[in-house]
Amino acid sequence: MLCAISGEAPEVPVASRKSGNVFEKRLIEAYISENGVDPVTSEELNTDDLIDLKTSRTVRPRPPTLTSIPSLLSVFQNEWDALALETYTLRKELAQSRQELSTALYQNDAAVRVVARLSRERDEARDALSKITANGTSTIHGDAMQVDGQGLSEGLVSKITATQERLSKTRRKRGVPDDWATSETLQNLKTTYQSEPLYPGSRSMALNAIGESVLLGGSQGLAGVYSIADKQIVQTLKIRSGAITDTLWAGNRAIIATSSGAVQVFENQSEIFHFSSHAGGITALALHPSGDILASVGVDQSYVLYDLVSFSPATQIFTNSALTTAKFHPDGHLFAAGGVDGQIKVFDVKSGENAANFDLSGPIQCLAFSENGTWLAAVVRGETSVSIWDLRKSIQIKTLEIGSEVKSVRWDYTGQFLVAAGPSVLAVQQYSKVTKDWSEPMRTSTGSIAVEWGPSAQSIISMGSDGSLTEVA
What we know:
By secondary structure, this protein is of the alpha+beta class. Helix content is about 20%, strand content about 35%. It has a 4-stranded antiparallel sheet, with no helix packed on it. A 4-stranded antiparallel sheet has the order 7-8-9-10, with no helix packed on it. Strand 1 and strand 2 form a beta hairpin. The longest helix has about 60 residues. The termini are far apart.
């Protein structure tokens, strides 16, 4: 009977209830206190599972190898050799560990230096971006100007405040004009005209205030003004470089943004000024309700405000993602920008501070403020629905399912009609203040990527991806 641990006859033998193995009591108790398992089977074991065995006491004989001086010397020599070998091995492992530690410390120090250098270069790049020079060339204003990220001038702040006070006072009391379209009018709308393709690769169009002229351009760097009455291009505008990414009217001035990062201002077919404040392509333009402040957003994660009276950049605000679309609130005190990160970022125009953020499921395709002053319509790129957000509660209150991909949305002047355009659909959604329900008075299969309301909402002008214009009246 031998101990399963030492392999020798035990002086105080015990047996395990679970495995039946025999152990020296002092050895197994020490093992259990350290590991808590059976050393042979690795099963959980404690001292209560041990059974004392009664055996006749035997005198352990002296090993035959240690009965003479030569055998003892031999054992001592073997033990010394083993100890010397173990000492050599430990010293070798210690030297290797020291070398690995030295290498790890060197790599850590190098990584810290790289991170510090990259952080410094990032800060320098951000500082440089915030001080981009806008080189404007004009017959009236020919001096170079700088966008320095400072706040708006007192004059612009006063103009924004006055515009907000003037428009917000009359907004809720404003009634529906007598000649405005009704749901019955929209139900009877039909396609009355479609032009030939004008500018391939078109992404945006703008209808002037009286609904007579359409400003549009394409991916080949060509732009022009189309007369709805004459049904032809009446003005051709000279673009400096890049594809046309957005267009709008500021009174009788045509404003065009390009993928090269330029904003060009035209009057009577001649360029009167241009800005180059973005470090990359411009994706969208927006005009303040006062008509004197222009905004542009771009892939450089910033938006720029321009003073259209002095033709100078007013401020540049940087965000945390590339921006895709933008709109001013109808009262002019808020500015909303959609990003590729799926977030609608709402800013206070006067201070540039981030007032609110609304999170959606993907890059923002289009934004549109309702004339009621409280709702914001948003479209996510590639989706078939329009989400309606309540600015007062900062929540999404409605999802309008259009049934086909949506590229553009526009509210009418009364805030009761919302037109949605896509590659295979043109649909109008109506909100009734009486029943507080939504309905769809009109739907056609006209493919569109941009849309505008005609005068008194009696017609709709849409544009296809080839630059062709369609009138539904």
